[in-house]
Design a protein that fits this description.
Low-confidence stretches: none
Shape: globular
Distance between the termini: 41 Å
Helix content: 10-25%
Number of helices: 11
Radius of gyration: 22 Å
Strand order of the largest sheet: 1-14-13-12-15-10-11
Largest sheet: 7 strands, mixed
Mean pLDDT: 94
Number of strands: 20
Structural class: alpha/beta
Length: 450
């Protein structure tokens, strides 16, 4: 029987433009690219050259420190470009797809009959191991340390986030196979919401199912780790995106790397928001160009508005992005009296506007403006009100800002990821870039402990 964990802290932000439960099939793109920036903490080393022929599943680049960690091509075709930036930083590897796709055969295996080492070796060989993240440090994991537990959150509750239940349709068998494979490595926990308990997610085997009942960010895997099996110094847990579980399951069920997935095209600047069947690395232009309401004053985001990365039509579907969102940029707004005006259409977390009288189900159109400048940090409990974790968030942020490693460790930095502070950043009256600060703190700690 599933455990029910009720959370009270948090904040649900309802935005206009949530994807309707309809799917569109997107025609194949003329170009695909795998972007190392999607894999946090990775130092890539290219193993192909321009003009090379690759199959889907062949490695395009590897982790320089752990060459056995490969990153597979999403399609078969010809390598057209190895794009580098400043100081020869690898930006992406581009592949022109074949008319008929070829897949490298890794052999069909029954994960129920495998041990943990065999599962890990299969993932390394197929170029899927790097899709798994870890705590501490919230980075792409490495094979030198095995986890004490594996966490999968199939519950997405960030604003405009894609509903994983849509992607699960037709992929139940692969998802179960992926969970079974991960359970061979370490004890595996699956987090779901109450609405998912009665569906196929509530009956998955080989995992411990936990139902998280509460406002956003109850779906954050870091929040779930904190409530089930917190990370102490010297320990490692794997955090696996549910789509990655499907990729892993396909490897064992079909014997090949197939990186097609379903993402949400959402946001108030998208015409007819819906779900789209795409492949990792697919260019965004043919996906979105005809669906945007306008070409100017629009913020495109790879991911959701709180944790996603700014992108453009020339970018590609990210390895972990479950949605592409479009919201107003806000750079063309000219408001009389600014924030001091009493408003009915603007969202406020602390009832600064009269819009709270409209009830909790009202949907808003928010733009990308910060609406204020950075100022001194106020110890008012703002962060703690939306962060359902057993840490002192404001004190942790202060320790990171001053670079006090001992304080960071004492205050629980090993348990957090930048996305856990997304809501705190949203409500922060000091306008601090909390996710960037946490990322810098984690990188500092990782460097010191290397």
């Amino acid at each position: 029987m599933a455990n029910v964990i009720k959370l009270r802290k948090g904040l649900d932000i309802k935005l206009k433009g949530k994807a309707a439960l309809t799917r569109i099939a997107v025609k194949n793109a003329a170009e695909y690219a795998l972007v190392p920036e999607d894999f946090i903490g990775l130092t890539p080393k290219v193993v192909v050259r321009e003009g090379d022929k690759v199959k889907a599943g062949d490695a395009l680049f590897v982790n320089k420190k752990f060459p056995e960690v490969k990153f597979a091509s999403p399609v078969s075709g010809t390598v057209t470009a190895v794009v580098r930036g400043d100081r020869r930083k690898l930006l992406c590897v581009k592949v022109a797809p074949d008319a008929k796709q070829e897949f490298r055969d890794f052999g069909v295996k029954d994960p129920a009959k495998l041990d943990g080492n065999t599962v890990v070796q299969a993932l390394l060989e197929a170029g899927l191991f790097g899709y798994i993240n870890q705590l501490p440090y919230a980075v792409s994991t490495t094979p030198d340390v095995m986890p004490k537990a594996v966490f999968v959150s199939a519950f997405r509750d960030m604003p405009l986030a894609a509903d994983f239940s849509v992607e699960l349709e037709g992929n139940d068998k692969a998802f179960q196979a992926g969970l079974t494979a991960l359970s061979k490595v370490a004890r595996t926990y699956l987090g779901i919401c109450p609405a998912q308990a009665g569906g196929p997610l509530g009956s998955m085997k080989d995992v411990e199912i936990n139902i998280f009942d509460g406002p956003c960010p109850a779906g954050n895997v870091g929040v779930q780790v904190n409530h089930i099996d917190p990370v102490n110094k010297g320990e490692v847990v794997w955090t696996v995106d549910p789509t990655t579980v499907i990729f892993i399951g396909r490897l064992f069920v079909e014997g090949k790397v197939r990186l097609d997935r379903v993402i949400a095209l959402a946001g108030s600047e998208v015409n007819d928001p819906c779900y789209a069947e795409v492949v990792v690395g697919q260019q965004l232009r043919p996906l979105l160009e005809d669906r945007l309401k306008g070409k100017e004053h629009v913020r495109l985001i790879s991911g959701n508005p709180l944790t996603g990365r700014r992108c453009s039509l020339e970018d590609y579907v990210g390895a972990h992005a479950s949605e592409i969102t479009a919201i107003p940029e806000g750079d063309n707004c000219d408001e009389m009296l600014g924030w001091i005006m009493p408003r009915f259409k603007e969202f406020s977390a602390n009832r600064s506007y009269f819009s709270w009288l409209s009830g909790k189900n009202k949907e808003y159109v928010l733009d990308a403006r910060v609406k204020g400048g950075e100022r001194h940090m106020i110890m008012s409990g703002e962060y703690d009100s939306v962060l359902p974790m057993d840490i002192y968030a404001e004190y942790l942020i202060k320790a990171i800002i001053v670079g006090d490693i001992d304080k960071m460790e004492q205050l629980g930095i090993y348990e957090v990821a930048p996305e856990d502070f997304a809501l705190a950043e949203f409500v922060d009256s000091s306008k601090l870039e909390l996710q960037r600060i946490v990322r810098e703190g984690l990188d500092l700690l990782r460097k010191e402990n290397a």
